[in-house]
Amino acid sequence: MKMRIWMLICAIMLITGGSISANAAASPVSLSETNITLTVGQSKTITVKSAGKITIKKKTFVSSNDKAVVTKNGKITAKKEGKATINVKITYKKGKKNQTKTLKCNVIIKDNPPVKADDIFDDNFDDIMNDFEDEVDDFSDFVDDYSASVDSMYD
């Protein structure tokens, strides 16, 4: 049993290059979002997050195609249905060294569904009917008052 454990430890040491560290894969920079779904015309801003004692020197946002555009501040706007990747090249200072890392945000863009006349009618019908009923009530009150006024002139 002890031999198996020793062999397992040796195998792990070989695979990891001799060091076992929980933070070995942790990056000091990351994106606020790595997968976004938008509809055409919609926008969302992604930001660069930093962990630890680092200074972000430069960020460059680039879209992989014209289906989504991105500003220098990370605001993504969906232009056409499809997929795009936003590549963010980050230069940061960790200790005395400048380092560069490129991160990606996958963007899925869906087309806006066409608006049907029935949808507009259904949404507004109750409001229109309530307004109409209020106007009819007001007119009815006016007619009643006018009739009473005319009747009193002949009494």
Note down, in words, how this protein is organized:
The protein is α+β, with helices and mostly antiparallel strands. Helices cover 33% and strands 37% of the residues. It has two helices and nine strands. It has helices at residues 2-15, 117-153; strands at residues 29-31, 35-39, 43-45, 48-50, 54-63, 68-70, 75-78, 82-94, 97-110. The protein has a four-stranded mixed beta sheet, with no helix packed on it. Strand 6 (68-70) and strand 7 (75-78) form a beta hairpin. The longest helix is centred in the C-terminal third of the chain and has 37 residues, at 117-153. The radius of gyration is 33 Å and the shape is elongated. The protein starts with a helix and ends with a helix. Mean pLDDT is 82; it is low at 19-24.
Mean pLDDT: 82
**Which percent range describes the beta-strand content?**
35-45%
Please trace the helix and strand order, writing H or E for each element. Answer: HEEEEEEEEEH
Major pleated sheet: 4 strands, mixed
Tally of helical runs? 2
Spatial strand order of the main sheet: 2-9-8-5
Report the uncertain regions. 19-24
Distance between the termini: 117 Å
Give the % helix: 25-40%
